[in-house]
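Throughout our pipeline, every protein is held as a single compact record rather than as scattered files. The remainder of this section carries one protein's record, kept here as part of the documentation.

===
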Amino acid sequence: MKKGQLQIQETILVLFIFIVILVLGMVFFYRFSLQGLEENKLDNERLKFNTMLSTVPEMAEITCSIYSQEVNCIDVYKLLAFKNLNDKYKDRMGFMNITIYSLYPERNSNLCELGSVRDCGIWNIYYNKPKEAKTTLVLRSPVSLYYIDKYGIGEIVMERYL
């Protein structure tokens, strides 16, 4: 072999090694960037979910109103009607479950259905669970419940499926 051919082969080998290292670096950078984007997406979902905890109890569809004045409580009779609107909110709320439990004046484990508000303590007002979920975020908060003639204390439990 001549000296020129040997130098060309060395140059081609160095270029090949450089390209392999460059491709490996790009693959690692892509994976690192993708992982960062997934973490940002999860953080944004958590933030959105946390804000829903304060907005859901104040939705006009379930909040109390006395003489057309809104009061900071949840009307238990409106909860039953809201349960029938699940399809309307699937785009807005996504995959989650919203359940309200009555804690006071009595803790009752009967599921509320139409016409049985006085003898129940659990309102499953929104349910849209995916077939498969990687992560479940759960938030709980106390709420004021309004029955026609009295107030009670309840707990809203929101589960978000990611």
Summary: DSSP finds three helices and six strands in the chain. Residues 30-161 form one domain. The two ends are 63 Å apart (CA to CA). The chain has a mean pLDDT of 84.
